[in-house]
């Protein structure tokens, strides 16, 4: 079975007040890519009015959505799946994460082996908090399970160079990404996750040189040029990864401050 997975920090769900142009462009992109799984960060406002935006997005992209509320920040996370994937269990954790964590176990057609997806958005405010969040994610990296953890980790990878322009960031933004030496970008969060057994698909497939922030239309924000969004797979799932792509186009330059990331897997059933 060919499985396509998209992870995307949409920047406030693609909405700027009453301006929905980014959201509409994001919907067009999703319909063009037609992922089987869409892991969304910053689904802000998707819980309002009885979940109206959640249900509207489901209808527009032809996928079923599961929303994890972020009670402190409102920056909810979500997971959308397309048939024939079938949900088995869903869990939302807004207690142990600055934003929230969404975990969805699904059944695959003609297979008794489940697949688990985790949509994460780690704390932007410092590596100490992110390392604590990463500790909660370690147990899900069991090597024999099929599990994919994806999202915005607000962290540099130990496999990547120093973020371009990091030393030029204003101190109040730069401090959010500093390592314990208070000079270089922190890489301990991704290192901790890899030590737990998670495999960085972007690095494994040779795509880790491509930054995911900031998008071209959002320069001068709080980011240096770096890879900030990841797809991390358990050992059993990583061996079935086929492709990895940061989608950098004229459209995605303007639809969010993050670029979307797409990966494909070939799963034996």
Question: How are the secondary structure elements laid out?
Answer:
Elements: E1 2-9, H1 21-33, E2 37-41, H2 52-61, E3 64-68, E4 77-81, E5 86-93, E6 101-107, E7 115-121, H3 127-137, E8 146-152, H4 171-174, H5 188-195, E9 199-200, H6 201-204, E10 229-233, H7 235-238, E11 241-246, H8 252-255, E12 261-266
Parallel strand pairs: 1-2, 7-8
Antiparallel strand pairs: 1-12, 2-4, 3-4, 5-6, 6-7, 8-10, 9-10, 11-12
Helix pairs in contact: 3-5
The CATH topology name reads: Deoxyribonuclease I, Chain A
Number of strands: 12
Structural class: alpha+beta
Beta-strand share of residues: 25-35%
What would your notes on this structure say?
Helix content is 22%, strand content 26%. The mean pLDDT is 97. With 269 residues, it is α+β, with helices and mostly antiparallel strands.
Question: TL;DR?
Answer:
By secondary structure, this protein is an alpha+beta fold.
List keywords for this structure.
about 270 residues, alpha+beta, Deoxyribonuclease I, Chain A, six-stranded mixed β-sheet, 8 helices
């Amino acid at each position: 079975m060919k499985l396509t997975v998209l992870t995307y920090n949409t920047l406030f769900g693609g909405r700027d007040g009453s301006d929905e142009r980014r959201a509409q462009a994001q919907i067009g992109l999703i319909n063009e890519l037609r992922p089987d799984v869409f892991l969304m960060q910053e689904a802000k406002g998707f819980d309002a009015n009885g979940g109206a935006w959640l249900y509207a997005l489901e209808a527009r992209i032809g996928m079923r959505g599961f929303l994890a509320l972020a009670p402190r920040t409102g920056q909810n996370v979500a997971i959308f799946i397309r048939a024939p994937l079938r949900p088995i269990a869903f869990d939302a954790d807004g207690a142990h994460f600055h934003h929230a964590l969404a975990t969805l176990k699904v059944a695959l057609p003609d297979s008794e082996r489940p697949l688990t997806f985790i949509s994460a958005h780690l704390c932007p405010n410092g590596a100490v908090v992110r390392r604590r969040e990463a500790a909660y994610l370690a147990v899900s990296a069991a090597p024999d399970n099929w599990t994919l953890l994806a999202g915005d980790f607000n962290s540099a990878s130990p496999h990547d160079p120093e973020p371009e322009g990091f030393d030029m960031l204003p101190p109040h933004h730069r401090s959010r990404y500093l390592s314990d030496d208070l000079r270089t970008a922190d890489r301990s969060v991704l290192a901790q996750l890899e030590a737990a057994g998670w495999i960085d698909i972007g690095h494994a497939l040779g795509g880790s040189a491509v930054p995911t922030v900031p998008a071209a239309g959002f320069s001068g924000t709080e980011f240096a040029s770096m890879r900030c969004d990841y797809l991390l797979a358990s050992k059993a799932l990583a061996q079935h990864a086929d492709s990895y792509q940061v989608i950098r186009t004229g459209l995605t330059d303007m639809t969010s401050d993050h670029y979307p990331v797409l990966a494909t897997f070939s799963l034996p059933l």
